[in-house]
Amino acid sequence: MKSDRLLSILLLLQTRGRVPAGELAERLEVSRRTVYRDIESLSAAGVPVYAERGRHGGIALLPGFRTDVTGLTTDEARALFVLAAQGAHSALGLDGALGSALRKVMAALPAPHRPAAELTSRRILVDPDRWLARPADAVDLDVLHTAVFTDVRLRIRYRHSGETQLRTYTVDPYGLVAKAGTWYLVADRRGRPRLFRADRVDRATLTDAPVRRRPGVELAEVWRQLRRQVEDRPADVRVTARIRRTRLDLAVRILGGSLTGPPRTGDTEAGGEDWAVLELAYPVLPAVRQLLQFGDDLEVLGPPAARRVIARAAAAVAGVYDTDEAPP
Question: Is the pTM of this model over 0.70?
Fold first, then answer.
């Protein structure tokens, strides 16, 4: 629409200063002739806009001219106010800044858009934590945050999963990523991408050395690479199990990442209508012990090696709690 195009030109000129007519035409996907007609329309509406010819010419506004128009549509304004519920700002110490910014945006919004934006902040809530997850430990991101934004190398003492010993690394940070309520430091170590959970960083110290990132590599690209390494791990152990239908929904939520297909119901060989059959895949055989949490509501049907792992694990648990003492 022409009105949207005029507003886009006005906002571009306010943020960029002088802009060549060819660049405006390319960004708006119109011809130069259309751009010049739009400039005439803005001028007729009282906007002090002018065109300069020549090699260094372009379209510009008179110095000092500003407008209160934000250019936001109703949906764009609503999208901004969903940000207040994301939860990432607290860990970065930006809750106060976010609230202040949203108040400024609200004040600048055209009056017809304000009710929708305000209602969105009251009606939409985003909780990044998983169901049944324990409360996340408080994570001090100050030093990590500083290293990311000041472009210096970072020395960390870090505890890997399943280990008690701390290891010391010097890393080159790309940035911080919040995924499902957990913060990660994305960094290079010796030129190779690594992922560090922020809540396992025992101590972080800024160095005096500038960061040494790989040329042309950005945070989003490194994160995609690391995420693929986690998600694309081979899952060669195939397990078949049956679970009571009353526990099926819970099992799908918990085991979703290991399921290789939708559950099968009504399988007579697996017990009929009261049971559902699950096909799962695990990277290593001991990982099937995850299924113990469903107790006697789940039975591993195969392979035999998986049944033996479950049997040994169940026997070990029973041995811990086995006692000859009479109940009180």
Answer: no
